[in-house]
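User: Second chain of the day. Same drill as before.
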Amino acid sequence: MKPLAPPPLSLLDKYVGQDIQPLYVATVTVTGGEARHGRASGVARSDDGNLDLRLRMPPELGGPGGGTNPEQLFAAGFAACFHGVLCLLAAKAGMSADGCSVAVAVSFARDPVDGMYLLTAEVKIRLPGMRHATAEELVRNAERVCPYAKIAREGMLNVITLVD
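Assistant: Same format as last time:
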């Protein structure tokens, strides 16, 4: 088996084209489980079988806990993506990001604008051993490149379709 390695720096190459060019598509299906409610008792499974999780409402929202929830999944994706971008940008600049960590706190909150719900994210980055000014520049550049940071800042193209 081939040892794990970081992705190639070519992922940072600029794309020139008129249309969005998908490089990878992840498909996850959620079913309702015991409570017939995806958030309360659902199961999330990816089409390739690598993700198979029980979804549970956290106690803070009146649930029993004991499983993951959408906010944790989003936070994990955001943190992993931002960490990866930081490491690629550091490598491209000939720097080491050893010991780097990214913690993302996602809050499920009430929206004062429409009275319903929204998500907020707080990203905390540690770059031990790196000069503060250098770390700040790296973080600013990562914020411009990371797709999760982009959707948090700009929104996301999203198409909702009812299928038979």
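The first strand starts at residue 28 and ends at 31.

User: Great, on to the next one.
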